[in-house]
């Protein structure tokens, strides 16, 4: 009996401990800035394969332009940034469930997403392009007629593909794209010929191909999708948190730190 009572007491104590530990992350409809400032910790959700915005290097460390930028922003408030890899197609759900505080990883601002999240100020321009092997002879989107296209699940590129079918969807084989969770597997399929073209962010395409030994084998083609801008995604209730991020952007731009981070990753200042 003593052993049984001990086990019950142990599990009860553990339950109470976990309940107390979880209180700091309890769902709330109020602005979370005061909690974040008090805890000195903010959680950023990202796709950890999105080179060069936020990705894992060979040592397993999460690095990238957005990683450096997020750290620079919150260092102004003496707040630690923790980076949480997530399923990119579920990013808005993760944000609303408060398992993360921010979506910050080459996150394109769009009218559809504005219905779900609050955006910070824009900090970088981007566009959707098709990367293909030159031997496939893709010089414009119409050249994808009857060919196999790849895209990332949950990406702004795939959203544009679906919402503006006349630009690309109506041209590709079966009027659909093969979806990938990350771009690494997509590039492998492109190299092997399983897909003929890959719809992708220009910033990723430029960085990825600049590190390929056979860069001359690829082509990057622009289309008629509207240009995009990267911004940070927040919950609608986190207006003060957004204000703090926007204020930090202004400070980093004025000090030259924003340009310094950009030159580190892109060789030039590509920030807005």
Q: Care to describe what's here?
A:
With 272 residues, the chain is α/β, with parallel strands linked by helices. It has two domains: 32-125 and 228-266, 3-Layer(aba) Sandwich (D-Maltodextrin-Binding Protein, domain 2), CATH 3.40.190; 128-222, Periplasmic binding protein-like II (D-Maltodextrin-Binding Protein, domain 2, 3-Layer(aba) Sandwich), CATH 3.40.190.10. 38% of the residues lie in helices and 20% in strands. The protein contains ten helices and 15 strands. It has helices at residues 2-21, 33-39, 65-75, 91-96, 111-114, 156-163, 183-192, 202-210, 239-255, 257-266; strands spanning 41-46, 49-50, 54-56, 62-63, 80-85, 102-103, 118-119, 124-126, 128-133, 149-152, 177-180, 197-201, 218-222, 228-230, 233-234. Strand 2 (49-50) and strand 3 form a beta hairpin. The chain is globular, with a radius of gyration of 21 Å. This is Solute-binding protein family 3/N-terminal domain-containing protein. Keywords: Signal.
Brief characterization of the structure:
The protein has helices spanning 2-21, 33-39, 65-75, 91-96, 111-114, 156-163, 183-192, 202-210, 239-255, 257-266, and strands at 41-46, 49-50, 54-56, 62-63, 80-85, 102-103, 118-119, 124-126, 128-133, 149-152, 177-180, 197-201, 218-222, 228-230, 233-234. By secondary structure, the protein is of the alpha/beta class.
């Amino acid at each position: 009996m003593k052993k049984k009572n001990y086990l019950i007491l142990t599990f009860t104590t553990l339950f109470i401990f976990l309940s107390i530990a979880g209180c700091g992350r309890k769902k709330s409809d109020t602005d979370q800035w005061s909690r974040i400032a008090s805890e000195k910790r903010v959680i950023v959700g990202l796709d950890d394969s999105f080179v060069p915005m936020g990705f894992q290097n060979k040592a397993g460390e999460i690095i990238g332009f957005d990683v450096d930028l997020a750290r620079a922003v919150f260092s102004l408030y003496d707040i630690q940034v923790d980076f949480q890899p997530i399923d990119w197609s579920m990013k808005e759900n993760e944000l609303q469930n408060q398992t993360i505080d921010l979506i910050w990883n080459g996150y394109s601002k769009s009218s559809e997403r504005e219905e779900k999240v609050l955006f910070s100020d824009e900090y970088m321009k981007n566009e959707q392009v098709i990367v293909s092997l030159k031997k496939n002879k893709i010089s414009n989107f119409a050249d994808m007629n009857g060919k196999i296209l790849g895209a990332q699940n949950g990406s702004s590129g795939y959203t544009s593909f679906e919402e503006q079918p006349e630009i690309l969807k109506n041209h590709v084989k079966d009027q659909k794209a093969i979806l990938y969770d990350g771009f690494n597997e997509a590039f492998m399929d492109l190299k092997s010929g399983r897909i003929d073209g890959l719809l992708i962010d220009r910033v990723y395409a430029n960085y990825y191909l600049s590190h390929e030994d056979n860069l001359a084998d690829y082509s990057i083609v622009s289309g008629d999708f509207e240009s995009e801008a990267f911004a940070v995604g927040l919950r609608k209730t986190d207006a003060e948190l957004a204000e703090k991020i926007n204020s930090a952007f202004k400070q980093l731009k004025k000090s030259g730190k924003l340009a310094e981070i950009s030159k580190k990753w892109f060789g030039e200042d590509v920030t807005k």
